[in-house]
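Write out this protein's structure.
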Amino acid sequence: MTVHDKRLANTHDDILEAMAEALDIPPSKFEEAKSRYEAIGNWLDRPESTIAEYDPAISPQGSFLLGTVTRPFTDAEEYDVDLVCRLEASKAQFTQKSLKEAVGHEVALYAQAHSMTDPEEHRRCWRLNYAAGAQFHMDILPALPDAQRYQTKLFEQGYRELAHDSALSGHAVAITDKTLPHYNRPTEDWPQSNPTGFAAWFRGRMRVRLTEAKRALAQRERITASVDEIPDYKVKTPLQRSIQLLKRHRDCMFADDCEHKPISIIITTLAAHAYNEEATISTALQSILTGMDRYIEDRGGVAWVVNPVNPAENFADKWAEESKKRNNFYRWLDQARRDFALYLRASTFNKMPELLREHLGAKLVDRTVAAMLPVAAVDLAAPAIATGISNATDMARAERAVEQINRAGPQSKPWAKS
């Protein structure tokens, strides 16, 4: 590739965008994972399937659904593809144990038919391992529809608006957990999850930029479909890119202590709260890193990171038992603030501060910078965090948002009781 063939960087955001893109799952790998889980869905729904009568449906959850997947930290690690296997059945027809075994039986037959190892049983899901070349495994979570009970609980807790919002609460499911005492007994009291509702909330935090990104893609590639018809996974917003960079920074910083690193759902939730529809990664990172801890509640000395679609759930519930996890979150946040600020306030974009280079991965940084710059790169550029004309509107909005947070205090309750 010659210099003229390169997509050359002109700003800090060009470098950050390229780095996040390098961290993203390659389109070919995404399509491979997608075709694999669709194949599992077809298998579960084939005429011979013992659960075909329940119309089983497979759908992604977690980072694959949110568009915040990051490459495995090392070549020895794999993409973790989280899936929900939903059966159109009731708790009168299954116990948690019988549901898990019914799904597990068919997943095992699929593995056998495709010369794969037997699926592993985990606390809530079945793990299907592919050959080493695939570089991913799939965690399949058995589930039943449970929106009515979910919405009733929200209503009883006083979250009436959320209970009546079908986009956010109408797709909740009941899931299995083999550690519970009533795992093998008929009961209405199942654990619940709502990955589709969370994804809808997350999408709502970046609706403007998501629409703009799809419109730009349609114009660039001359797509005749409407913006609404373009799949979310085809584009990325500054919020998604920022989360990918922050997760990578976290992975590098805690490479030797994965057990106590800040978990992705906490980073994702707090980042989405603090995001204010900024148009660039640099301004998004400023808002997120400045404001994300303002959305951590203190409830009688207990830290709460509220699930925005289930306010009774605390994503930081482990912090009370393991103070190291709480301390590590704040240690990571302080470090991320310093690392990214050093880069974004620098007048040059083609050289990263050593600590940020280390905490994003030296190989990734060096490879990205080299690919984005001409051989004789100019060492001067405007800092990304500045009052330049190009991003003045975004910066003003970010600063207003931070000031508002500082004045009002934590705003982690997205749903007021009424």
